[in-house]
Input
Amino acid sequence: MSRDRRPRLGPDPALGLTDAEFAAMAQRIHRETGIVIGTAKRNMLIARLAHRLRDLALPDFAAYMRLLDSPGGEAERRALVSAITTNVTRFYREPHHFAALAELAPGLSARARSGARIRLWSAGCSTGQEAYSIAATLLDHDPTLDSRDLRILATDIDAEVIETARRGVYDRRSIGPETPPTLHRFLRDGPQDHQVITAPKLRALIRFETLNLLDEWPFHGQFDIIFCRNVVIYFDPETRHALWRRIAGRLVEEGRLFLGHSERMDSRLDPLFAPCGVTQYRRTGIAAPPDPGQILPGNLAVAAPPSATRTTPCPFAIP
Ligand SMILES: C[S@@+](CC[C@H](N)C(=O)[O-])C[C@H]1O[C@@H](n2cnc3c(N)ncnc32)[C@H](O)[C@@H]1O
Output
C-alpha cells in the first residue's frame, strides 16, 4: 500500500487516516501532552477522533488537522486533549495511599494548628474524586482543618474534567466498595436521585484548575504531599523523568509523592526520592536541579503549530 493511500481503518472507513496524517497527529499529541500514541493505538485514535469529525461535519482527518492548525482552532485543540486523555478515576482509588495519608494526617494537622502553611497537590486529578478523597481523609482526622492554612490544589490538562470536578456531582453507582463509609458524611443528595454532590466543607479545601504539567507552573511554593497517579503511564520515559524531577523541586524535604499502581520511580532520581511504601516516595534532603520551566517531549518543539495548552498562560497562582 502506498503511504498516501487512505487506508480503510477504524469504525468509519470514510474518515480514513493516512500514515503521514497519523504520524503528524501522534507528534502533535506527544508534543502538547507528553502522551505517546504508538502505531498499536492507531485505531483507538481514529475511534476517539471520529466523534469530533462527525460533530464538526468534517469530511476527513486532513480537514480536521487544518482546523487544529488554524488561528480559530483553539476550542478544537482543547477538545482534542479531552478526546485523547484517559480520565478513569474513582473515590479512594488505590486505598493504601489514603491509609498512608491518614497516618500522615496527625502530623499535618498539628502543623496546621500551629499556623503552618500546608499544601497538597492532586496533579492529573481527572474528574476530582482523588482530590475529594484527600480532603475527606484529612477532615475525617481533623474536622477543623478547613479553618487552617491547608489547601489542596487539583489540576488536569483536560478542561472538561475540571468542570466536572468543580461541579462535584457524581453518580451514586460510581462510589465503589473501596470507599470508606466516612466519605458519605461529606456527600449530599445531588440534583437527581441517582446523584450525590460533595459537601461545601470538602470543596472549601480544594482549588480545581486546568494545567498542563508540561507547561510552566504558575505558582512558586512547595507542597507537603503530591499525588501524581496514573498520569505518566502514557508518557515516554524522558518526559516522565523530567516531570518527576520538576516535582522533586516542589516537594518539601520529607514530603511525599504518590504514584499510580503501574508506575515506579526512575532509578536516576534515587538520590531525590526514597521509597517508603507501595508506590510511595519520601523526598530526601538532596537539592533538586533547577526547574526548566517547560518540558518539551522529544525536543519536538521546533515549528510548533498553535496550541491550546502550550501557549495559553495559566491564569492562577497558589496563595
Ligand atoms: C487516568 S487519569 C488519573 C486520575 C487520578 N490521578 C487517579 O489516579 O485516579 C489521568 C489524568 O491525567 C491527565 N493528564 C494527562 N496528561 C496530562 C498532562 N500533560 N498534564 C496534566 N494532566 C494530564 C488526563 O487528562 C487524565 O485526567
About this structure: Residues 33-35, 85-89, 93, 124-126, 130, 156-158, 161, 212-214, 229-231, 260 surround S-adenosylmethionine (CB under 6 Å).
